[in-house]
Design brief:
By secondary structure, the protein is of the alpha/beta class. Helices cover 35% and strands 18% of the residues. A 7-stranded mixed sheet has the order 3-2-1-4-5-7-6, with helices on both faces. Strand 1, helix 3 and strand 2 form a beta-alpha-beta unit.
């Protein structure tokens, strides 16, 4: 079906992977394993409307553009948004926004998204705000980066999971114990990422 993530879409993602640095080379991206796991998770699923909170330089954006019908990629740095715009991805729109403002909360309450990539401020308070805003927008698939790198992210995600009654959790990316010499906390204490799907 045209509106499903097809084999051709996954091939497109894998080709994009060749243009993207791995996390060991570029600390503000996700690992290539994380990205491949996303393609595996969404393969044959319906293409949906995504929001990306904390898009950085657009490495993950480039990859997930093959998995989504539309993506709103948000970063607080205009320079990052310009870099993503230069990728000329037909289904990606960028926005510079303060994710923790009342204006952004109001925006999320008046818009509808199905999938969220949460990779902005890596502490418990801000991740909980990200989750709350995404719930307001109807998100039912949450993708979290740096779950095993920052205890605040893990605490917020675990608390979110504990609040749910009908859900599926998939751990993705590099496993606990992976060493990243160029990152703040060096060693993953748990899985790099996690997908939480509300049923």
């Amino acid at each position: 079906m045209e509106n499903q993530v097809s084999n051709d879409n996954v091939i497109q993602c894998m080709q994009a992977l060749e243009r993207i640095p791995d996390k060991s080379e570029w600390k503000t991206t996700t690992s290539k394993v994380f990205k491949v796991n996303l393609a595996q998770f969404f393969h044959k699923k319906e293409k949906q409307n995504w929001v990306e909170l904390g898009a950085a330089q657009g490495h993950t954006t480039l990859f997930i553009s093959g998995l989504a019908s539309k993506i709103l990629s948000i970063d607080n740095d205009e320079k990052n948004c310009r870099l993503i715009d230069q990728l000329a991805l037909s289904n990606v729109e960028t926005s510079t926004a303060d994710l923790y403002s009342k204006d952004f909360r109001d925006f999320m309450q008046s818009n509808k998204f199905d999938v969220a990539v949460i990779d902005a401020v890596h502490d418990e308070k801000h991740v909980k705000i990200d989750i709350s805003n995404c719930l307001e927008a109807g998100v039912n698939i949450f993708i979290f980066d740096d779950y095993g790198m920052f205890s605040g992210v893990k605490n917020a995600v675990d608390s979110f999971i504990d609040s749910l009654s009908n859900f599926k959790v998939s751990y993705i990316g590099m496993p606990p114990g992976t060493y990243y010499p160029n990152t703040q906390n060096k060693v993953l204490q748990d899985w790099e990422g996690v997908i939480v799907e509300i049923k």
